[in-house]
């Protein structure tokens, strides 16, 4: 009797220890994520002299000048505009190209449909950064050719070309996700529309696409994040010193320049400028994003 | 007949743009990686001379390349093991136990995944800064004197990269596994509990086997993406330095491109391509189990 009682008590305190341990580890992990991010926000309003003291000291005041310097002197304002254009344009191109293609590939059987489906699936395994060098050389050779024929090349240092490359390299994953969704729809929808006299195009645009809205939102969210955050392709295809740059590349240059100049404020202001849009978006749509991710299953 | 024609025209119109973009920007460059690895190409002229397997021959004796491959393999092995172990255990805890603030934790853990690698590199530069850095200042507190560890120095740079990469990846996989673990029926755990199976046993004998298919797919993709992630981190955080100590396969390939050695760069590209395919095929084979239904 006594023995079982003490055993029960023992396992109870073990249980408590276990719970305590769980909370400790979870909170430690959460802190290790939140604190560095919050620290950058705090550092972005510190004056340069404050960076030589205790890194955990609260900022003396709101030193707005860091943001002004980053925005104008380091051209982050221009880069922000470029990033907005590139991201929006890539998303538009991607949707216009991928939606009809996924619809046809998943719902029509034609001579090459099986081959094309396999081809796009294989594309999932090709990482863009594996092929960035040949893409760069292809565009540079194209520029050389254009220069010889027309006297002017426009393929490199061009945000429109960058957007097309982004959209093209996002195709396999997007088509994979969308086809997966379209394949689940019943064929009755189309048959009813055909009977009512709607053509193929009309059926696709006004019957099928509206139904795919949740998938389209998922695709926009994911690709927004990957286009906005991408920097290797952008850095390679827009390498000219005076040419346009996207925000992450501008930030990378700023960080490398400030490293030697020991002018820390604008660097952290730049960090805030790059991550703020994604954080705001995340806060607004985090439920949807996490749901979409688990539906999508995998990401390269 | 007329209807058939309209159908074909519609299909071609829909599929052609995607196929054309895919061929130009993915298939052609991929084939070019393999073709160009057999050629020597001038830095500024598009003339190419065929050199056979010479580029590959020089690769074998290139100490920098061998180090870059070693670093890549080290990162793949260590980052994968740590990330998956932590993600699975945390996901298991968060789905099985009554933890307060579960939703908030989930939201927080996912944050690193939405940040640009450039931003993460900037954050970690602030953490690793030798003087007045976040990490060293905390260590100083415990040590009682000023700690000035060079986290990005030659000895510790790989460890620093591993920490940053795990920090970035862990939340994504945790959230993913939480979703699949939530689908495991509660009754299985209840009957296992009645049979006297403890938490650890339940985790290894119920949770892991039942979500094995999911683990397997994510593992394969994670390994491929680590080759790429390592490059993104190295390029933004260390540029391969100091003295090539943190060079990885893709960053070495990119560096050779900057040096104008395109043929050589693409030979490295071929090695990376083959390496990642063989590795994922291998992982796929090794992890093969008969899927369990529930």
Give a brief rundown of this model.
Chain A has 12 helices and no strands.
Can you walk through the features of this model?
The complex is a heterodimer of chains A (300) and B (294). Chain A has helices at 2-43, 65-73, 76-107, 113-123, 132-150, 159-182, 188-195, 200-211, 213-229, 232-237, 247-261, 264-296. By secondary structure, chain A is an all-alpha fold. Chain A has two domains: 4-43; 67-296, MetI-like (MetI-like fold, Orthogonal Bundle). In chain A, α7 crosses α8. Chain A starts with a helix and ends with a helix. The model of chain A has no long low-confidence stretch (mean pLDDT 86). In chain B, α3 (63-96) packs across α10 (212-237) and α4 (102-114) packs across α7. Chain B has a single domain, classed as MetI-like (MetI-like fold), CATH 1.10.3720. Chain B has helices at 2-36, 54-60, 63-96, 102-114, 117-128, 134-143, 157-182, 186-194, 199-210, 212-237, 249-258, 262-286, and strands at residues 39-41, 48-50. In chain B, β1 and β2 form a beta hairpin. Classes of the chains: A mainly alpha (300), B mainly alpha (294). At the A-B interface, α1, α3, α4, α5 and α6 of A face α1, α3, α4, α5 and α7 of B.
List the main descriptive attributes of the protein structure presented here:
heterodimer, A: 300 residues, mainly alpha, MetI-like fold, 2 domains, 12 helices, B: 294 residues, two-stranded antiparallel sheet, 74% helix
Radius of gyration of chain B, whole Å: 24 Å
Number of strands of chain B: 2
- What amount of the residues of chain A lies in strands? under 5%
CATH topology of chain B: MetI-like fold
Helix and strand layout, with pairings?
The complex is a heterodimer of chains A (300) and B (294).
Chain A: H1 2-43, H2 65-73, H3 76-107, H4 113-123, H5 132-150, H6 159-182, H7 188-195, H8 200-211, H9 213-229, H10 232-237, H11 247-261, H12 264-296
Chain B: H1 2-36, E1 39-41, E2 48-50, H2 54-60, H3 63-96, H4 102-114, H5 117-128, H6 134-143, H7 157-182, H8 186-194, H9 199-210, H10 212-237, H11 249-258, H12 262-286
Antiparallel strand pairs in B: 1-2
Helix pairs in contact in B: 1-12, 3-7, 3-10, 3-11, 4-7, 5-10, 7-10, 10-12, 11-12
């Amino acid at each position: 009797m006594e023995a079982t009682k003490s055993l029960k008590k023992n396992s109870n305190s073990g249980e408590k220890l276990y719970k305590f341990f769980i909370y400790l580890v979870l909170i430690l992990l959460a802190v290790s994520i939140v604190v560095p991010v919050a620290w950058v926000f705090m550092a972005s309003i510190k004056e340069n002299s404050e960076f030589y003291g205790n890194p955990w000291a609260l900022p003396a005041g709101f030193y707005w000048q860091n943001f002004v310097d980053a925005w104008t002197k380091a051209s982050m304002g221009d880069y922000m505009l470029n990033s907005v254009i590139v991201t929006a344009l890539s998303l538009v191109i991607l949707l216009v190209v991928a939606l009809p293609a996924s619809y046809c590939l998943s719902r029509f059987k034609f001579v090459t449909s099986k081959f094309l489906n396999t081809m796009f699936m294989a594309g999932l395994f090709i990482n863009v950064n594996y092929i960035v060098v040949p893409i760069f050389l292809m565009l540079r050779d194209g520029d050389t050719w254009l220069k010889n024929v027309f006297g002017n090349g426009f393929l490199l240092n061009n945000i429109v070309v960058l957007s097309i490359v982004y959209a093209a390299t996002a195709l396999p994953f997007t088509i994979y996700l969308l086809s997966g969704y379209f394949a689940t729809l019943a064929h009755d929808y189309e048959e009813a529309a055909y009977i009512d006299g709607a053509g193929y195009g009309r059926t696709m645009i006004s019957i099928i696409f509206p139904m795919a809205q949740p998938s389209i939102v998922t695709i926009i969210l994911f690709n927004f994040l990957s286009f906005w955050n991408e920097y290797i392709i952008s850095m390679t295809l827009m390498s000219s010193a005076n040419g346009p740059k996207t925000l992450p590349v501008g930030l990378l240059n700023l960080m490398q320049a400030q490293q030697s100049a020991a002018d820390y404020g604008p660097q952290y202001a730049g960090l805030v400028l790059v991550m703020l849009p994604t954080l705001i978006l995340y806060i607004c749509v985090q439920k949807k994003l996490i749901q979409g991710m688990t539906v999508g299953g995998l990401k390269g | 007949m007329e209807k058939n024609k309209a159908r074909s025209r519609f299909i071609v119109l829909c599929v052609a743009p995607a196929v054309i973009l895919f061929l130009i920007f993915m298939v052609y460059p991929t084939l070019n990686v393999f073709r160009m690895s057999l050629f020597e190409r001038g830095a500024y002229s598009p003339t190419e001379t065929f050199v056979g397997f010479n580029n590959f021959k020089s690769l074998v004796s290139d100490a920098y390349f061998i180090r870059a491959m070693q670093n890549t393999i080290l990162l793949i092995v260590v980052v994968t093991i740590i990330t998956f172990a932590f993600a699975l255990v945390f996901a298991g805890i968060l789905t099985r136990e009554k933890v307060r603030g579960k939703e908030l934790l989930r939201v927080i853990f996912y944050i690193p995944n939405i940040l640009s690698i450039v931003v993460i590199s900037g954050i970690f530069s602030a953490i690793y800064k030798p003087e007045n850095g976040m990490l060293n200042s905390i260590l100083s507190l415990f040590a009682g004197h000023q700690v000035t560890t060079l986290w990005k120095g030659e000895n510790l740079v790989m460890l620093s990269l591993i920490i940053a990469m795990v920090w970035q990846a862990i939340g994504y996989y945790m959230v993913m596994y939480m979703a699949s673990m939530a689908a495991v029926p509660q009754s299985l755990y209840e009957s296992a509990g009645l049979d006297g199976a403890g938490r650890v046993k339940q985790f290894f004998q119920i949770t892991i086997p039942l979500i094995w298919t999911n683990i397997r797919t994510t593992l394969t993709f994670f390994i491929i993406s680590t080759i790429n992630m390592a490059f993104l981190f190295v390029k933004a955080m260390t540029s391969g330095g100091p003295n090539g100590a943190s060079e990885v396969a893709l960053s070495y390939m990119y560096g050779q491109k900057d040096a104008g050695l395109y043929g050589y760069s693409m030979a490295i590209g071929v090695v990376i391509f083959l390496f990642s395919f063989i590795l994922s095929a291998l992982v796929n084979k090794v992890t093969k189990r008969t899927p369990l239904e529930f």
